[in-house]
Amino acid sequence: MKKTILNSLVLSAFTLTASVAIADIKDGTVLSAANIDSLYEDTFEGHKIKDLLTEKMEWRIRESGLQMPLVHSQKVEMDAKWIARSQSNVGKASLNEQTRQVEGWQGGMPFPNVDEKDPKAAEKIIWNWYYGNPRGDVMNVPNVSYVMIDGDSGVERSQNWKFIRYTMKGRMNGEQTEGDGGELSRTLFFATAPRDIKGLGTYTVRHDNDQVEDVWAYIRAVRRTRRLSGGAWMDPIGGTDQLQDDIEIFNANPSWYEGYKLIGKRHILAGAHGKHSAWVVGAENQDDEYPVLDLKNPPYWNLSKDNYEPREVYVIEAITPEEHPYSKKIVYIDTQYPRVHMGEAYDKKGEFWKMFQFHSYPSTGEDGFRDIRTTAGVTIDFKRNHATVFFPDTATWSTNTEGLNMDDVNLAALRKGAR
User: Is 0.90 surpassed by the pTM of this model?
Assistant: First the structure.
């Protein structure tokens, strides 16, 4: 009996010790360099902290000042129209292996049921992002702040831009296609402040085929627009650290890349329910203006005051064409809906160069459409020790803006906005 009691006590003590060891970290815990080692083997929502961190994110916590406030994950409810349109593609949409274009797409995600064993799984997931990004028929962001940050000295300057993307094909409301069916979207993107760059920007027509985009830029010196070369999608945006291809981390027709590899599926910490007030327009000081940034500690670009939750993602390697500045991108795409939370870019030698981190939140457009909106995004150039942080004014963002039509997004609108 004594032996039985002793064994029971030992077993109870072991069970108690094990349960304490594997107990989940509390919501609100801030992961940092000071506690990462003590929390490394602990879990959050059943996942060990070490397994929720990519190699580069762990490095940033340990060596580059990043802190990550942990919050429990929330379900993202997708719009009923978007779900129905995505499901309508089953058995109709296909990937043409010769042209590398999608055929039979009806709107939404072309491939809602991707089989990971499919040799084209990675490419289909990228097409789901490209076609199925749930941003609505009209993405109207009239006030965007670009903040340029030096890793040693802090904020250098800020710029205000205007962004409008008008979807021409695969629309959720009214006619599925506007125009002649050859255009996928039209995009206006130009600076509104400060005065020395006001008007700098582009008008872009994206075709629904493998043809490169038609891009026009406004040239301030001559007060004229000029058509750019077909490689403009790989060019830098103004004086930022972003390429046109880096807008929302991946902004190219999938067929322009050489190929894709599905590395796997895993959980990471991502800002899928970021704070809406990431940019407080009109605040009296920078700390209040950019409340999710850690502006008191170098390298000053860390989104250390936002929310991070566990999200399951596909990890995909995208191989660039020879003329691209990068040799490859690694992108982390949510498995529940097409959203790229994070990305990495490598130079021609295969060495780590840039990191992209975009935070978002679910919202509702003017017509009730459920969309996904960016709250903050950062592109970090580790070679330059420099970053560009992107903050849309969420208070003025509108989706499916009433009264905005295709004729409001054209070359004349670029000229008008620039002047």
Answer: yes
